[in-house]
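User: Please predict structures.

Assistant: First:
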Amino acid sequence: MELAGRTVILTGASGGIGQPLCAALVAAGARVLAVGRDEAKLRRVAQHMPEGSTSWVVADVATEDGRAHLLRAAQAASPLPSVLVLAHAQAAFGLFEEQDPVEMERLVQTNLVAPMLLAHALLPLLRTHASAAVVVVGSTFGSLAFPGFAAYSASKFGLRGLTEALAREYADTGLRFQYLSPRATRTPFNTPAVDALNAELKVSSDVPAEVARQLVAAIVQGRSRMQIGWPEKLFARINGLVPGLVDRNLRNSLPIVRRHARRPRSSTEENIHHEPRLR
């Protein structure tokens, strides 16, 4: 799929991956409709792009009003959008017993329900094109569930299942669905506790610009699935074939995970720990 001349809707456009992804899409010739909750951040993103290449929509896609507002903006765009990139997400790291039920519900609403309903609302518009795409920026944790990330993994597994089912449902049409998975990326999406855990477990991480480059390349190539990074690509495959091996490997890491995931005692740290982070 050549992106030149196309309008691309990008949710999470002001996030750590969203900003370089917007730039990479524009560099490929697309006109981007950048979506986020913070107008000031969206303005800054647009200011760094060539004039006329990027417009923005302030909308919380986790709400019905936000999705309706985005749909109206998409219908008014010229040319009409033919690519939807779902790159927004809410983070959650912590022991499952200590998770706030309200925050878990919000996480599932943001990471799974909102993309599902947004794709559903935009399908009629996307299908006016001979070729179109819905691109889901997923996560390694959508293929490899990880202790300390139970709710987040559940939301990403659901999102992967949704994307895979829709790809099969529309396989004989010009509309394709892609699930593209970054691994750990160096952005503020990660809390200090997550960064400390990754450092102790020696988890590799990527710079956002490189992730954006690989995502855009996968969109152009039409790849239905992609896992960025090694050994994450291998572990995801092993987890699908022989999950018991992964179970045993991760069990050895449980003391480290629990130490970093346990709820901080001080009120200041607790606020940092529970702050929802969107990319």
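Second:
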Amino acid sequence: MTGTTSATSPILPLQTWSWQGFPIRYQQAGQTGAPILCIHGFGASSNHWLRNLPVLAQTNRVYALDLIGFGLSAKPAPNDPIAYTFETWGEQIIAFCREVVGEPVFLVGNSIGCIVALQATVMAPEWVQGIAMLDCSLRLLHDRKRMALPWYRRSTAPLLQQLLGYRPFGRFFFSRIARPQVIRKLLGQAYRRAEAVTEELVNHLLEPALQTGAADVFLAFVRYSQGPLAEDLLPAITCPVLILWGADDPWEPVELGRALAEFPAVEDFIVLEGIGHCPQDEAPELVNPILQDWVARHCDAKSAALQ
């Protein structure tokens, strides 16, 4: 079982699925084995799993989709009619499982993709066999978490969010971010391995950001300080949960993330030394075998229980 791919990963054939009348891009590899569905983080897309899909496909049917509002999926105006919330994306994931995959899946999420996976599982647990969470978003700017901060730090983020709500300022702010040099700098913060920040990766993030509607989706989500936290959803999860975390994640500190391991559904909390916020792309040679072994172990246990 190999755990690596080439530095430049081939993009799989474009596939489109219609959800609520909107085109949704997804990628698929592998013909046999238990299905795995990969869910990207904020500002990313299914291309963030290109170093995983070919390897996971050696043992499983594996899918990755672009959440509505991201990647090459449709980007309708916020609340017209799509609200960019975890409930919306959870509904999208479950509909994809029903209409495209056709059987219960193992969900693998990165960052906010972990919250989406948890939300989908709470909404329709019969469609999820297990959840692997990679550097779960702790949502430190959530209204409830901000209340625990000193007053002088509590007001900074709401002020910026209010300014971003002024459309001309928000769009100007986004235009300053959606540039190759800025994306490269942000990735340099998120990734510990400098060599993993390639031109290919920068382009994968930049291309969708230049599409019509991308700015409005970005602004809608950065002003979204409500909705569920991982600790709200995990108590309702009954399927097995695996957590992987980059030890050098600057955005979601591993020491704060360890608290999630206390929930009964969490089987293991694995720290990946020398890795940042996106371990699936930064260190696929570590992540892929862990995911394959975890899925295989649960499939074997299920088969044994049925005998």
